[in-house]
Design a protein that fits this description.
Number of domains: 2
Radius of gyration: 18 Å
Helix content: over 70%
Strand order of the largest sheet: 1-2
Structural class: mainly alpha
Number of helices: 7
Strand content: under 5%
Distance between the termini: 49 Å
């Protein structure tokens, strides 16, 4: 039921366009460089001339606007509002960020890494659904896979230090 451009769903092109825009914002603008500097070390960023409170407020404001936009898009799919409407997307979104190599403490990560993490998780989820497993079993298996991936990532990080 999705419009296709050739054999490819149109939403893929929207996703790629958003990816390019986010990459440009984070990698090629002064704001992106200041954001990573604040994520690595606030004190050092402040001593380097970055207006840390402004960067933090702008980041939270942008996050809030994008969350509101995501809520409107989700509302368009569900046609009904209820408490915890997007709750089932919370864990997979955080997991995609971690699997993609972004440190939750800040300072390291990339948009493409996060998108790669989302693709890996979606692939695993699709494979589990194709097996016809109950949703609870799928969640347990996905959690175990995430623990394994995170422990491997942590072990690789320890070897690099």
């Amino acid at each position: 039921a999705q419009p296709l451009i050739g054999p490819i769903p149109g939403v893929i092109f929207l996703w790629i366009g958003l990816g390019i825009a986010m990459w440009l914002l984070l990698e090629r603008t002064p704001y992106g460089k200041m954001l990573f500097a604040v994520g690595i070390n606030r004190t050092t960023a402040m001593l380097s001339g970055v207006r840390v409170p402004l960067v933090v407020v702008l980041t939270y404001a942008m996050s809030g606007m994008l969350a509101a936009f995501g809520g409107f898009v989700l509302l368009g799919f569900t046609d009904i509002v209820f408490l915890n409407l997007g709750g089932r997307y919370l864990f997979p979104s955080i997991a995609a960020v971690v699997v993609g190599g972004t440190l939750l403490s800040g300072g390291k990560g990339s948009y493409w890494g996060t998108m790669s993490g989302a693709l890996v998780l979606q692939l695993i989820n699709s494979l589990l659904q194709a097996q016809g497993l109950p949703e609870a079993t799928q969640s347990i298996i996905l959690g175990v896979v995430l623990l394994v991936l995170i422990s491997i990532y942590g072990r690789q990080r320890a070897f690099r230090l």
